[in-house]
Amino acid sequence: MKQDNGTDEKGARKYEQPELNRLIETLMKNNGNITDSAKALKCDRNTIYKMIESNPALKQIINRAREVIIDEAEKYLLDNIKEGNVTSIIFVLKTLGRSRGYVLNGYKPNEVASKINHTVLKKLTDEQLNELETIFRKKKDIKSFLAEIGLDASSD
User: Fold this and answer.
1) 130 burial via Cβ count (<10 Å: 0-12, 13-18, 19+)
2) 26-55 pLDDT, tens per residue?
């Protein structure tokens, strides 16, 4: 609810529609970049953040602008893959390809994690984690290994 002094009941400034429209136009022109938009509007970045806080529709506009940037990046990533860029290929396989079994260290991270409570993994030393990885690769009994070193695989 707007008070007579141009603020809401919490004391936050209410922005007029022309101000908001100008900010929306500037954010879209600058792909949601707050710093560039602040420079274009000759205001402080904090002013824009306050405007965003008072108007959730602005946050949606920024998110949409950033989605466009991600779409562009994906387009170039695909172009790099088509050109045989090894770094781009590895990146995609490590991220999008995980569901097909492309992972680091020869195993899917969730395979080990699904068999052992995460709090148990945190208790292991680096040496024990390496041994656990070796055991997992050899398909030995992980629970027996944890029992040998004094840990219960299902404990918190």
Assistant:
1) exposed
2) 999 999 999 999 999 999 999 999 999 888
Q: Which amino acid is it at 64?
A: R
pLDDT attached to residue 89: 85
DSSP H or E run through 111 = helix 109-115
Whole-Å CA distances, 94 to 8, 100, 122: 48, 10, 24
Query: Is the model's pTM score more than 0.90?
Result: no
3-state secondary structure at position 9: coil
- In degrees and rounded to multiples of 5, residue 13 shows phi and psi of -65, 140
User: How much is the pLDDT for 2?
Assistant: 40
% of residues, the chain, pLDDT over 90: 33
- What is each CA distance from 4 to 11, 16, 55, in whole angstroms? 11, 14, 19
Output the pLDDT for position 87. Answer: 86
Per-residue burial over 47-70, b if 16 or more Cβ lie within 10 Å, else e, is: ebeebbebbeebeebbeebeeeee
Number of helices (H) and strands (E) in the chain: give both, helices first. 9, 0
Which amino acid, 86?
V
Q: What are the structural domain ranges in the chain?
A: 103-156
